[in-house]
Amino acid sequence: MPSHAMDRAFTCAIWSAAVLVTSAFLWLLGDLVWHGMAHLSWSFLVSEPMNAGRSGGIAPILVSTLLILAVALAAAVPLGLGAAAWLAEYTRRDGALGQAVRLSLDVLAGVPSIIFGLFGNVFFSVFLGLGFSMLSGGLTLACMILPIFIRTCEAGLSAVSDDWRHGAAALGMTRAAALWHILLPAAASAIVAGLMLGIGRATAETAALIFTSGYVDRMPESLSDSGRALAVHIYDLSMNVTGGDGAAYASALVLIVLIVAINTGALALSDRWWTRRIATS
Amino acid sequence: MIWSKPSSLSRWHDDRWLAPPLALLAAVAALILLLVLAFLLSEAWPVVNGDGWWRFFSNEGWYPLEGRFGLLPMLWASLAAAFGAVLLAAPLGLAGAIFTRFYAPPFIVKPFRIVLALLAGIPSVVYGLWGLTVLVPLIARWQPPGASLFTAILILALMILPTVALTSASALNSVPRSLLHGAAALGLIRTGIVLGVAVPAARGAILGGILLATARALGETMAVLMVAGNVVQNPTGLFEPVRVLTANIALEMSYATGVHRAGLFASGLMLTLLVLALAWLAARIVRRTHYA
Amino acid sequence: MKPSQWVRALITVIGLVGIAVAAQAADDKLVLTGSSTIAPLALEIGKRFEKLNPGVRVDVQSGGSSRGVADARSGLADIGMASRALKPEENDLMAHTIAMDGVGVILNSGNPVQALSDEQIKAIYTGRIRNWKEVGGNDARITVVNKAEGHSTLELFLHHFALKNSEIKADVVIGDNEQGIKTVAGNPVAIGYVSIGTAEFDAAQGTPIKLLPMAGVAATVANVRDGRFPLSRPLNLVTKDTPSGLAKRFIDFARSDKVNDLVEAQFFVPLAR
């Protein structure tokens, strides 16, 4: 039986862990700000890159990144929610089919990102004929996001108490209605967590996108255009282009702001929209 | 709008249409892995098929230009880096999740979650850049050359920590309050409730998150490439430079042709099969609990 | 409107915007793939070419020299980019050199050693000399930085010093030039070799590295241009057959002196005119 001394020690340990994580993050962020702040400005956000990205801005790259993200989410979210719902509602815990699907998703999570890039190049760009395009990049990213999104959503759905399912059945609701109106909203926080991780993975991905959505830094005109994602731009500026460090750090800062904005939006959406429909327990 | 039918005894039982489309979606998701495996296999075929595959284990050293393809040291390095990172990140991530759920004052919860989401979203190249310009020189002053297994473990741990933290937090949030209230009613103090009730109740999902994090660590390319030193040798010391399989693929894929290229794909296949083995093992060991 | 209606409207708008394939007249498009070293230069040359030839699009992708050669051969790309001379087995392709890139040895600027002979460099890289004090520096173990196999910089280095890669005892292996520079800049006892133009620029920006002369010749872009510096590699645009049409116009443009400023802006050496 844990004593009060142990309780204090444990509390201390937990707080230290949280402080450690936050400090590591602040150290990293501080370094980015130190090197990149000077390069940031409004014109940086709205102008085109010049001189291989060393001067000018990142406007086309921001647009490309958002479009690629949109494609990835548009493909991954419906697919992921559907698959998670199937796994949670229609398979037994020990069922062979469900286990096979879960296993393949876990393995998919471990495939190296550069392999995904080469796969995406062969399958989406060449075989399906999409070429170097944001469609190709977004779909490849969707493949990479799926494992973690599905697992998180499935865990969330499984955790919803069966009382809710029984109650829905007692009301005469169809399973589809129960799923859409009761269960998914109840699992909203898990879905959002999966979404945050998925978006994070998508924005962080570099190697996969170099081979699929490509290197072109022009403002894209359609989804079938090649477009450089922010992470690819940062990689090119810091590792490939001489003297691109300042712009690289500044781009990294913009990326961070972008992630905060998207995630805050996702959290707000989940709070307002989903939970409004259910009396909180 | 509730789409309820007058009676669920009605003949046109609407539930039957739901299962097949959902099953199809799940099948598509699983199919992607098969496609990726098929791709890897086809690219690695010249090596896997011929009897030359043995040399990937028996050759001394990795010098593809001279026809030597020994990749065991890189395999050990991949395993060492990934498991070292999980050893660091799992407790820290779990602690972070416990913090969010049980210890953090309300005004800290959202910002802390945002911090975790940010850590998850920072590109691996930024982690690598920071590691290269800040961590490596720091460690070099302590133990040259600085770019080593240790640095790789630190960076990887930082990268996979959000995965563990966010999935564990989600799992802990899903533990029914009744369980926790019951534990409190029994007189358990907070440590006891957390360690004795909440974590075990959520252990299935937590372990799932850790497995995903391990898979991510094994598959991480860019960041490790920049901080691990990339010398092909067995990871004998924590501060010796090592090259992991993924960094090897990234370094050499642009320039590789023929057997060399097939060999790189074979190493990618090996990694995927490794994750398969790990995942299967984890599924066997863990009995996922449902709580209600 | 209810939130769900907003979302539906938003999705419709995004969908329309996304699917809208601009009904443009079929643009002339040129696709280049290959070396990531040449990619930034090709990108800038392409932009200038586009400005001078409205209606033309030049798309540059990276992926490495071997990919550029393979894509040029298979037709997936109109022009391949290779940061090396063509190998004997690639003699079915044509190379058009657009710039030169010198390779020099760099040390951390805190290192007192001012020059190293070819023999000393060889000895350091093969592990025969392990301590800086043996070549007139401080008493510290040398951290040897080498390039990854397959990179043309490595092959150039090995060829010049008549070494095999298996003979080199490296402490750190790097992929890109900038990684090499950052490694040496962060470590007072490191030695490495990188593109001269890159090193010159970074040193001028205050990065704590310095270029060593080789065989008595200072490692400067000027010396590479004059041909006096012993180690340099060509940057090539590769085509399957004699280029024609748009590809020919682009290659001629890239080799002309109209882009010399762009070449120099990327710290390469334009071909002497």
What's the quick description here?
The complex is a heterotrimer of chains A (281), B (292) and C (273). Chain A has helices at residues 4-36, 42-46, 59-90, 96-110, 113-127, 134-159, 162-170, 175-186, 188-204, 207-210, 230-240, 245-274; strands at residues 49-50, 55-56.
Q: What does the model show?
A:
The complex is a heterotrimer of chains A (281), B (292) and C (273). Chain A is 74% helix and 1% strand. By secondary structure, chain A is mainly α. Chain A has 2 domains: 2-39; 45-280, Orthogonal Bundle (MetI-like fold), CATH 1.10.3720. Chain A has a two-stranded antiparallel ribbon with strand order 1-2. In chain A, helix 4 (96-110) crosses helix 6 (134-159). In chain A, 59% of the residues are buried. Chain B is an all-alpha fold and 292 residues long. Chain B has one domain (68-287): MetI-like (MetI-like fold), CATH 1.10.3720.10. In chain B, helix 3 runs parallel beside helix 6, helix 3 (72-103) runs antiparallel to helix 8 (190-219) and helix 8 packs antiparallel against helix 11. In chain C, strands 1, 2, 3, 4, 5, 6, 7, 8, 9 and 10 form a 10-stranded mixed sheet that branches. Chain C is α/β, with parallel strands linked by helices and 273 residues long. Chains in contact: A-B, A-C, B-C. Chains A and B meet through helix 1, helix 3, helix 4, helix 5 and helix 6 of A and helix 1, helix 3, helix 4, helix 5 and helix 6 of B.
Structural domains of chain B: how many? 1
CATH class of chain B: Mainly Alpha
Question: Quick one: how many beta strands of chain C?
Answer: 10
- Through-space gap between termini of chain B: 28 Å
CATH class of the largest domain in chain C: Alpha Beta
Let me know the average pLDDT of chain B.
83
Main β-sheet of chain B, in a few words?
2 strands, antiparallel
Beta-strand fraction estimate of chain C: 15-25%
- Give the oligomer, counting copies of the same chain as homo and different chains as hetero: heterotrimer
Note the total helix count of chain C: 10
Within CATH, the superfamily of the largest domain in chain C carries the name: Periplasmic binding protein-like II
Largest sheet of chain C: 10 strands, mixed
At the fold tier of CATH, the topology name of the largest domain in chain C is D-Maltodextrin-Binding Protein, domain 2
What is the C-alpha radius of gyration of chain C, as a whole number of Å?
A: 23 Å
The largest interface is:
A-B, 108 and 117 residues
pLDDT below 50 for ≥5 consecutive residues: which ranges of chain C? Answer: 20-26
CATH architecture of chain B: Orthogonal Bundle
Helical percentage of chain B:
over 70%
Elements of chain B, N to C (H/E): HHEEHHHHHHHHH
User: CATH-wise, what's the superfamily of chain B?
Assistant: MetI-like
